């Protein structure tokens, strides 16, 4: 098949980890006889430096026309003055909104070799296999903001249509897994959460084969630490999802391992590791590339329909971790290139 992939390396370790992900995608194309066309574009802090805009028009046009977008990370201390008119993160928020990618998928699995890195006792981690579906284009992050000297507001707004579409996505994904959905809200206090809960409940009737339970976000924060293996798909609004997915990431041992996919109703999806630009280690060749490589696997599965190729990459990453290859964040001394080469070797051994 032919596919156009827009690559947005971004800032900090973004360029290092996206280079690793692109090399794995090139390998998948070569072995499967596919033609992937890659093009690189600016976003975030480097785009502010070069174009005065964290999401230049050219980048947005190419992303909208692509089959998929692979992103590294944006931001860094150079652009983080709170008084600055333009900030790198605005580019990413705008890109998500413009692409209409309202469902952010974050799988969290705990590799047995890495359980010791988790803050939790190992027995609680056996069998942890979560898929977060975070609403990504609504809620407090996109509502109206006001500010006077002493008063600030961030409006949180959700429509039934916004909740329905992300809930449907979560239920549909649950069908391919454990057929259980946990919907997280704060319905005892927030009106948006009451709308959220009623709507998810209604959507559940379309999926009688999937079990639904509701949790309040404060309980869920605790349950992720006390019974993480008890959950399957967890669907929640933008703000709660942001916080809970970082918490869940700690279960896996390192931020550097975890991928994400952001999907809408259109064909183009946005794929990025969940970690940030990690300015403290940027440019040193020590970043863990596995989160970006697993994001490339999600790209193959969700945007290009290449599920077998995606599974092969995920299995190769598992074998690399089994073999004890480990980057600094995992307590080892493998560099970005070494870890990437190990994944490519594992893929080609099997072929
Ligand atoms: P952002 O605000 O962009 O989300 P953040 O403040 O959450 O960023 P990160 O940039 O993700 O933070 O970094 C948090 C810590 O994790 C840093 O010490 C960083 O070096 C480390 N880290 C993040 N990603 C990786 C990676 N891929 N490999 C190794 N270490 C990483
Ligand atoms: Mg962060």
UniProtKB/TrEMBL annotation:
This is 3-isopropylmalate dehydrogenase. SUPFAM superfamilies: Isocitrate/Isopropylmalate dehydrogenase-like. It is found in: Cytoplasm. Substrate binds at residues 96, 106, 134, 218. HAMAP family: LeuB_type1. Its main location: cytoplasm. Keywords: Amino-acid biosynthesis, Branched-chain amino acid biosynthesis, Cytoplasm, Leucine biosynthesis, Magnesium, Manganese, Metal-binding, NAD, Oxidoreductase. It catalyses: (2R,3S)-3-isopropylmalate + NAD(+) = 4-methyl-2-oxopentanoate + CO2 + NADH. Its cofactor is Mn(2+); Mg(2+). Pathway: Amino-acid biosynthesis; L-leucine biosynthesis; L-leucine from 3-methyl-2-oxobutanoate: step 3/4. The record marks 141, 186 as: Important for catalysis. Homodimer. The keyword Metal-binding applies. GO terms for molecular function: 3-isopropylmalate dehydrogenase activity; magnesium ion binding; NAD binding. Residues 4-343 form the Isopropylmalate dehydrogenase-like domain. Its EC number is 1.1.1.85. SMART domains: Iso_dh.
